[in-house]
């Protein structure tokens, strides 16, 4: 019970987390490969990436359940790299609730206070308070198995925040819940974050979850950060081909690009040539090279809208989906193109097999060096 | 399809009842024999007497042997449960590459013939003076009981989410506190039931005890063998009956613990 318990006065909301050159190897596997992340105090950061990209390993290194091969981790002004997990004073929520099945809900929530030697009466009062924070006041005497999945996860949340840690770590906390409950819990966690001002690091492989919840999202692949930035930036200007393909839907067209002065000229598979503004190139292009033209399906406009480039698409399928319709088609060189058209669009002319004209607004085009697929 | 199934279930039924018969017939014979009046074993017994029970309870030799066996079984239960639970924890939760080697070593005593183990221990204990001593018996029986403890607790530990302890540690608990307050209470029924098993295994272990018993320090099973060779009076069925009652009581206790664990 030699854990510091921050008194009510000094419990300033969140603390900054600094991860420097973090590397973790498991024998020959490099799980995390030189990751730098700065989370500012009170920020909500999501770690997003495909399976095996190292998200859990990074989080466990911050939590103290894995010790890095090299690099450092600090919270506030304290270097925690090799501090044992139980001395870090961080809140943690696991994927499978991990409520202690032999204890009542109240005892579960009071557990961190018990570990800190808080007297019984105060312990229970504060546990009740934490339960109220997650809207479970009055559930204290139940046992975890008498609660629904969502309620259990709320209890886990209450247990993680009851001693007011300055950082809350969550590893896919909502992936065991069904869709409706998940959305409800997303709001709940957002609300808690706003209310407590705590720093949150949230692991998920659900991109919409990451984009809607986090202030900033770190996209990971093979143990490296691909991009880290606010949701909007990630979506509207992905920093590289991986992020462009990983976040949201994206059309990719292989082209040959040639930069000259303020303009870039791209040669499409159809033989057409478009002049793009230099800002279209996300990474600088050099001379004449293979490149990928990327555009979001919802940026394509049906017909000639006179504000960009037009191109022809053979219509393969039209899927009606209420608020928007999805058109799937192909370019003459059989590159697949998807377009999301507002629900009110007149689609009567789009017979399967016919050719449709689309406009790409100039500012919707992004250009990356390399080739798709 | 149906007739084949019927023949199959018929064969299975016959097999099961045959096995049951072989298990139960000795009990049916031994219990009445312990009440027989004659000095030699006979079935069906003639008359009814409790004198063989009285002899068992009043004879100093039987009492000493029983007391030794109880001491040894009790200490064995404690040692085997402590060591077995700790070893199982390391095996199930540890990341070490030695885990599988460790497992083989722990399970080994089930495969090694007891007689081989007994001879080995006999020669070894003779030279270091442990033969015929309580610590000697306890050591030997602990080795024999460990596999059962490991099996029982490994099954229980496998069902306890390893993240419980991680969660407890993130709440500020040390690893030991996390084990004591979270994992141990969850596997406790299995731990207690494995202690019962270890007690029984030690209490009626004949082979190793036969080799390790000294002139004065004899366990109950060893004493019974001697008696069978020399006298073979109905005191043997009387003790056997008492042992059956004790075993059934302990196994029922272990069973109750385990069904509590399941609920
Ligand atoms: N204890 C371990 N021993 C060996 N390799 C490990 C260990 N933990 C993780 N790895 C490996 O490290 C890499 C990163 O794993 P990690 O669990 O961090 O990925 P993740 O991004 O959390 O994936 P997921 O979305 O599937 O949870 C993977 O290749 C994984 O196989
Ligand atoms: Mg993971």
UniProtKB/TrEMBL annotation, chain A:
Enzyme Commission numbers on file: 7.6.2.11
This protein's UniProt keywords: ATP-binding, Cell membrane, Membrane, Nucleotide-binding, Translocase, Transport
Broad EC category: translocase
GO cellular component, one term: ATP-binding cassette (ABC) transporter complex
UniProt xrefs under Pfam families: ABC_tran, TOBE_2
GO BP annotation list: putrescine transport
Reactions performed catalytically: ATP + H2O + polyamine-[polyamine-binding protein]Side 1 = ADP + phosphate + polyamineSide 2 + [polyamine-binding protein]Side 1
Domain ABC transporter, first and last residues per copy: 17-247
GO molecular function terms noted in the UniProt entry: ABC-type polyamine transporter activity; ATP binding; ATP hydrolysis activity
Domain of life, per lineage: Bacteria
Subunit structure: The complex is composed of two ATP-binding proteins (PotA), two transmembrane proteins (PotB and PotC) and a solute-binding protein (PotD).
Functional note: Part of the ABC transporter complex PotABCD involved in spermidine/putrescine import. Responsible for energy coupling to the transport system.
Family: Belongs to the ABC transporter superfamily. Spermidine/putrescine importer (TC 3.A.1.11.1) family.
Record-given protein name: Spermidine/putrescine import ATP-binding protein PotA
TrEMBL record, chain B:
GO cellular component: plasma membrane
Membrane-protein topology: Multi-pass membrane protein
GO annotation, biological process: transmembrane transport
Keywords noted in UniProt: Cell inner membrane, Cell membrane, Membrane, Transmembrane, Transmembrane helix, Transport
Pfam families: BPD_transp_1 (PF00528)
Places the protein is found: Cell inner membrane; Cell membrane
CDD domains per UniProt: TM_PBP2
Domain ABC transmembrane type-1 span(s) in chain numbering: 66-254
InterPro entries: MetI-like, MetI-like_sf
TM segment ranges: 12-35, 67-92, 104-125, 137-157, 178-203, 235-257
Entry's family note: Belongs to the binding-protein-dependent transport system permease family.
Protein name: Mannopine transport system permease protein
Source organism per UniProt: Microvirga lupini
